[in-house]
Amino acid sequence: MSEGPYGREEPPAGTDTAPQLALRPALEAVLMVVDEPATEEHLAKVLGRPRREIAQALQELADEYTVQGRGFELRQIAGGWRYFTRPAYAAAVESFVLDGQQARLTQAALETLAVVAYRQPVGRSRVSAVRGVNCDGVMRTLLQRGLVEEAGTEPETGAILYRTTNYFLERMGLRGLDELPELAPFLPEAEAVEGDSQEGVPSFDPDAPDTEADDKTEL
């Protein structure tokens, strides 16, 4: 307890008052300020409500927005809930926010991202073997964009392994990797590129300039 401006004790913020708030408006207020999908467990903790009650309220809000035809929607994605622009109005948001400038990845970066997504955790040299070209530059780009991250090292060689991030799931509109399209059978098996692996080479410098010059393609 802390002392208020007039000498009265006041409860710590967010402890005693949150459970007294109307649940659905409280969820809307919290979700308006999150910068990544909020889990039901976290929302239940900060609002002092059972997880089942939180999950039901979130689904009711999502259904309500759909019925009302609102320009935004509440979606469960990457393990949590977050507001998104409804696809039908994406062009309006793009015109206002981006002013015609779209963030793009090169075709090489998209190909590299696909290999990581389907073969993760995977090392740089194995990705390069699958693509047939060196992937250092594009892997650096993916790291800087927050689409991939380090996932430990390979026991035999000590080479750094990489995997996709929650931000990748969010950008792709996926709840989890199990929702990836069935494309893995079209990629070579790990054994097929083992002979070309150079996993023992030192890791690249993540701060080095990116020299990748492929044609740009929208993410």
From TrEMBL:
InterPro entries: ScpB_csome_segregation, WH-like_DNA-bd_sf, WH_DNA-bd_sf
Keyword vocabulary terms for this entry: Cell cycle, Cell division, Chromosome partition, Cytoplasm
A Pfam family it matches: SMC_ScpB
SUPFAM superfamilies in UniProt: Winged helix' DNA-binding domain
Membrane-spanning intervals of the chain: none
Region feature Disordered, mapped onto this chain: 190-219
Gene Ontology biological process terms, A to Z: cell division; chromosome separation
Protein name, entry field: Segregation and condensation protein B
Organism: Streptomyces olivoverticillatus
